[in-house]
């Protein structure tokens, strides 16, 4: 990794631009130099190339506008500190970190607007500029304005696509060229062709060869990265599918249409010699390489791009920046001066080893399942002697749609507690926080099949998607029709307009119930799928953690947290939250959760909801009931009727001290299915009589 290049504000001023991390905020820059770096007003004036009265005015405005109140306001300082940490840790030239929330603009539009600042900062007259494609790139192109350069050429960085999306490579490059009043060079070939021979033939065509030559002359390039989720840009662009996901099992994402591993290198596979456009070696030779990306699912590919030397400037949001640093072993809570949102943990209060009731950690999952079979013999039993492929003991009539669920261990009583009449028919269990393998899912599929097809319902995680998709392909080869519903209720893990990228968490429970009820009513496969999707779309969850969980094999906390902090927006795999904030009272925590859920769900007076107040493992019933008390008051204040409430351990994260709240917005159809009887050992309900 290259060492960071020292660069003073004065050096940047000589280049005619401020450091990107400060954007267009001279008040913040002056405040930082004065209050945190200890420079005099005269020294700041020299650094900025401004007069001393101007600096004095900047500092006065900063105080009056609330940027400075004894110290710089926490959100700005936090973003600034994280940007500096990324620059120093990865040795890149610049980093711009923007808020991930606030206002009505989507995360793509915020990042695109910030990317437009980068465009304005780095391009010069006469430049040859490349741009990739995607929602963020189109937002960047739309946000570019008031940039006065001449003789600029914009080059499409890859071949094209005929996918029905508005952010194609052609559209993004054309729009940027229009905004810059620049010349435009297309790539008159598909991004992915049918064979290596077809690629070589097209690249020899004189027109295409001349166009591709421009990619070797780029001065700047603006690009994004994509995860390999089914909702990702590379899927929607028609360049990738579930079959390729199996082939590229070790990949973490894509960059310029190239599938990359965790070190940012192109993965050898069937697409490598069929992709037309800028390759990764050419990318690394471009002098200025601006990566613009953000979101929970983008952390692995962004980190890979940074490790692979593909980035000179990064534009991202605060939560993603924290995720990148944490994933690379940087203690985010230690970043910044007097950071208000996180108190460094006191080493004398941190437990180094968590005591557990274990024999051998490697046997923990199987021994727990043996205990479950012994405790609930009327509900569950192994399929063909396999303790991790489990079926309901209840008989399944011919013609009934089978419902198969599953995921890693560590979430007990999920998922095996939701198997039985009116719920799922079978469940596949993996290692702790790990997807079950395809053969185990296939065994459950065969057992659940009663001639009407099988519905898979599971959380939106890469490993689960890959393994369940492989099982579905194998089942299809045996004549079993399979349909899939991915749960994505965790509203903290991705933006509203990127719902398909969200994680499935405790809202799983309601989706299992609706799918199981539809199946028990003997509805067809398509109708069961529709209702399960409807239930998922109606669920909204946010989780909060006070302490991390600990894995059986390490018996140590999965992350460290200060005694006065909490993680907001946690998942169920032991990961930190989306943000770390000061700990609040129970009522205040519920208020923060409700504010986020209400903003997303947009409830109206008279609406009905089902409520789940879920322990993440280490939170006792007393505290869950305190949370439910405040939640009920907030719902009553909105005139929202609570139809039913679940409180307790439903979808846990081992021993994590935390809780999640799920609201499912109901209509008559969902209410009727929710009121049908069910009988799993974690949820048994006799059903409501019609009123």
From TrEMBL:
One Gene Ontology molecular-function label: carbohydrate binding
Gene3D superfamilies: 3.40.50.1360, Dihydroxyacetone kinase, domain 1, Dihydroxyacetone kinase, domain 2, Winged helix-like DNA-binding domain superfamily/Winged helix DNA-binding domain
Domain of life where this protein originates: Bacteria
Residues covered by the DhaK domain: 360-683
InterPro entries for this protein: DhaK_dom, Dihydroxyacetone_Kinase, NagB/RpiA_transferase-like, RNA_pol_sigma_r3/r4-like, Sugar-bd_dom_put, WH-like_DNA-bd_sf
Membrane-crossing segments per the record: none
A Gene Ontology biological process term: glycerol catabolic process
Record's GO cellular component terms: cytosol
Keywords attached to this entry: ATP-binding, Kinase, Nucleotide-binding, Transferase
Protein's UniProt keywords contain ATP-binding: yes
Keyword Ubl conjugation appears in the UniProt entry: no
Pfam family, any one: Sugar-bind
EC number annotated for this UniProt entry: 2.7.1.29
UniProt signal peptide: none
Protein name, entry field: Glycerone kinase
Organism: Rhodobacter ferrooxidans
Lineage, highest ranks first: Bacteria, Pseudomonadati, Pseudomonadota, Alphaproteobacteria, Rhodobacterales
């Amino acid at each position: 990794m290259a060492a960071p290049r020292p660069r003073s504000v004065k050096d940047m001023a000589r280049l005619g631009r401020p450091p990107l991390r400060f954007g267009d905020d001279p008040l913040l820059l002056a405040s930082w130099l004065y209050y945190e770096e200890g420079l005099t007003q005269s020294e700041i004036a020299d650094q900025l190339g401004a007069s001393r009265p101007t600096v004095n005015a900047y500092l006065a405005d900063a105080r009056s506008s609330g940027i400075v109140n004894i110290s710089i306001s926490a959100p700005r300082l936090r973003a600034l500190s994280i940007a500096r940490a990324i620059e120093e840790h990865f040795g890149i030239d610049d980093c711009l970190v923007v808020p991930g929330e606030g206002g009505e603009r989507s995360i793509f539009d915020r990042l695109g607007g910030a990317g437009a600042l980068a465009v304005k900062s780095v391009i010069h007259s006469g430049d040859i500029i490349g741009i990739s494609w995607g929602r963020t790139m189109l937002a960047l192109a739309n946000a570019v304005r008031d940039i006065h350069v001449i003789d600029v050429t914009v080059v499409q960085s890859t071949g094209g696509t005929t996918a029905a999306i508005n952010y194609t490579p052609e559209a993004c490059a054309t729009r940027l060229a229009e905004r810059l009043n620049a010349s435009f060079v297309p790539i008159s070939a598909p991004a992915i062709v049918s064979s290596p021979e077809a690629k070589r033939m097209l690249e020899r065509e004189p027109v295409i060869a001349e166009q591709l030559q421009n990619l070797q002359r780029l001065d700047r390039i603006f690009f994004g990265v994509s995860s390999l989720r089914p909702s990702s840009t590379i899927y929607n662009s028609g360049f990738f599918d579930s079959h390729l996901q199996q082939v590229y099992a070790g990949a973490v994402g894509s960059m310029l249409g190239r599938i990359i591993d965790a070190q940012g290198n192109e993965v050898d596979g069937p697409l490598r010699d069929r992709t037309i456009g800028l390759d990764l070696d050419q990318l690394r030779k471009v002098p200025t390489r601006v990566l613009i990306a953000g979101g929970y699912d983008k952390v692995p590919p962004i980190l890979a791009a940074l490790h692979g030397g593909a980035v000179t400037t990064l534009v991202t949001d605060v939560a993603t920046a924290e995720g990148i640093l944490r994933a690379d072993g940087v203690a985010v809570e230690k970043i910044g001066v007097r950071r208000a949102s996180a108190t460094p943990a006191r080493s004398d209060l941190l437990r180094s080893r968590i005591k557990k009731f274990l024999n051998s950690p490697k046997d923990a999952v199987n021994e727990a399942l043996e205990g479950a079979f012994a405790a609930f013999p009327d509900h569950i039993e192994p399929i063909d002697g396999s303790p991790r492929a489990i079926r309901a003991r209840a008989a399944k009539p011919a013609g009934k749609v089978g419902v198969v669920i599953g995921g890693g261990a560590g979430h007990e009583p999920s998922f095996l507690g939701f198997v039985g009449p009116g719920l799922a028919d079978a469940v596949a269990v993996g290692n702790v926080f790990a997807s079950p393998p395809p053969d185990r899912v296939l065994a459950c599929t065969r057992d659940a099949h009663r001639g009407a097809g099988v519905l898979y319902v599971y959380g939106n995680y890469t490993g689960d998607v890959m393994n369940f998709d492989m099982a579905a392909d194998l089942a299809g080869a045996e004549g079993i029709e399979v349909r899939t519903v991915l749960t994505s209720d965790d509203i903290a893990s991705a933006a509203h307009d990127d719902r398909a990228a969200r994680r499935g968490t405790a809202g799983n429970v309601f989706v299992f119930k609706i799918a199981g009820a539809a199946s028990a009513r003997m509805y067809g496969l398509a109708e069961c799928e529709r209702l399960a999707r409807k239930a998922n779309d109606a669920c909204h969850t946010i989780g909060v953690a006070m302490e991390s969980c600990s894995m059986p094999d390490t018996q140590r906390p999965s992350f460290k947290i200060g005694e006065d902090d909490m993680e907001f927006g946690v998942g169920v795999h032991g990961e930190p939250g989306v943000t770390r904030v000061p700990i609040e009272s129970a009522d205040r925590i519920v208020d923060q959760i409700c504010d986020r859920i209400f903003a997303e769900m947009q409830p109206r007076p008279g609406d009905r909801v089902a409520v789940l107040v879920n322990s993440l493992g280490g939170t006792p019933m007393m505290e869950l009931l305190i949370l439910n008390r405040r939640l009920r008051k907030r719902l009553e204040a909105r005139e929202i009727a609570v139809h039913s409430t679940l409180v307790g351990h439903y979808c846990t994260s081992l021993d994590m001290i935390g809780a999640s709240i799920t609201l499912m917005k109901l209509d008559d159809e969902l209410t009727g299915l929710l009121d049908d009887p069910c009988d799993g050992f974690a949820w048994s309900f006799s059903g409501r009589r019609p009123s």
